[in-house]
Predict the 3D structure of the following.
Amino acid sequence: LSLQVAWQDNVDPDNMTYEELLDLGEAVGTQSRGLSQDLINLLPNSKYKFKNLFSAKKARKRCVVCQMRYKRGDRQIKLPCKHVYHSDCITKWLSINKICPICNTEVFG
Ligand SMILES: [Zn+2]
Ligand SMILES: [Zn+2]
């Protein structure tokens, strides 16, 4: 079972819990090793802030890894594919898996 088949046919990352994502990461981890902390540190890191008070509610997005909405001041990491996650969440994810949980793009591919 290839990684892509697993993601596309059986898995909807939007509806997975953090534990399920980690399990999946470990299940496929044998062929796809994670990134080192040094590499993860190279990713752009920023603090979440509201750009516009009126659109803030709609604009608030969830971190796919933990399913929580971003709060002001949360540390975030943006992957080269433009997907954004909590810095803590994606650091744990990338230490197991070197692909973006949403689009499967290899982060340093
Ligand atoms: Zn998160
Ligand atoms: Zn992505």
The chain has one domain: 3-96. Residues 79, 81, 83, 100, 102-103, 105 surround zinc ion (ligand 2) (CB under 6 Å).
